[in-house]
From TrEMBL:
<keyword id="KW-1003">Cell membrane</keyword>
<feature type="transmembrane region" description="Helical">
    <location>
        <begin position="48"/>
        <end position="67"/>
    </location>
</feature>
<protein>
    <submittedName>
        <fullName>Paraquat-inducible protein A</fullName>
    </submittedName>
</protein>
<dbReference type="Pfam" id="PF04403">
    <property type="entry name" value="PqiA"/>
</dbReference>
<feature type="transmembrane region" description="Helical">
    <location>
        <begin position="169"/>
        <end position="191"/>
    </location>
</feature>
<dbReference type="InterPro" id="IPR007498">
    <property type="entry name" value="PqiA-like"/>
</dbReference>
<feature type="transmembrane region" description="Helical">
    <location>
        <begin position="141"/>
        <end position="163"/>
    </location>
</feature>
<dbReference type="InterPro" id="IPR051800">
    <property type="entry name" value="PqiA-PqiB_transport"/>
</dbReference>
<keyword id="KW-1133">Transmembrane helix</keyword>
<feature type="transmembrane region" description="Helical">
    <location>
        <begin position="87"/>
        <end position="120"/>
    </location>
</feature>
<keyword id="KW-0472">Membrane</keyword>
<keyword id="KW-0997">Cell inner membrane</keyword>
<keyword id="KW-0812">Transmembrane</keyword>
Amino acid sequence: MRAIDAGLLICHECHQLNRHDPEAHPQLCTRCGAHVHARRPNSLVRTWALLITAAVLYIPANLLPIMTVNSLGSGQSDTIMSGVLELVHLGMFPIAAVVFIASILVPTFKLVGIALLLYSVQRHQPMSARQRILMYRFIEWIGRWSMLDIFVIAVLVAVVNFGSLASILPGYGATAFASVVVLTMLAALTFDPRLIWDNTELDDPHE
């Protein structure tokens, strides 16, 4: 049984359970006074909007240089993939694997995973509620690792600054990539996981 079937609503701010009052418009939390909803208003629409924007920015994030290394008057710009290939060429396989997973595989998985989650909920696709909630929790968990490239670039820009001898500058790709990470994190936050359980009986009566 869902909480809504028992007449209970949860506050998104303080997580207080509130008894549903059909006559209250809007209903306020008894603890903190925040608005309480059975489901987040326009959750799917907002999540789709954030996800599509992130998918559009994912293209320049991978095509534009993420940073430029200037050394002795000459500069070399690298995209995420060219940086990974350069690390492989230098024999730094573990670092190349970490950068590839954190900067390419993780954002791609988040984009595809959230899109599949939204599509399965909206179209009642044959995916159990357990599979959906596991996917949702995994997407939330891996989101924190997507900023690895941006963190490394920020450290290098601050540390490597020797004027004309050597310097590192962030590229437009870094801005696009950071936007993708932030937008996918917001998409995961705006998605209401309770919508997964609303489809449980339709998708799998035994779950």
